[in-house]
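ENCODED BACKBONE
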Amino acid sequence: MKNLIAELLVKLAEKDAELDEQDARISALECLVTLLIGQMSSTDFYSFTTRINEDITQFTSCNNTHLKHPELIQQHMRKLLQLKPK
C-alpha cells in the first residue's frame, strides 16, 4: 500500500512539473504576441484582428474532435486581440 501511495505521489509531482512548464510556455507566447501586436500599425492591427476573428469563428464552428474547449480558446484569443497598437 505504501508503494502505491509513493508511486501516486511521484506521478502527481511529475504532472505538476509538466503543468508548470506548460504554463511558462503559454506565458512566454502571450508576452511574445503582446509585443508583436504592439509593433503593428493601426491598419495592420485592424486587418489582423479581422482575419483572426473570422478564422476563430470558422475554427470553433467546425467539429474538431481534438479541441477540448473551443469556446475557451475563442475567449482567450479575443482577449489577446483586445490589445491595441501604440
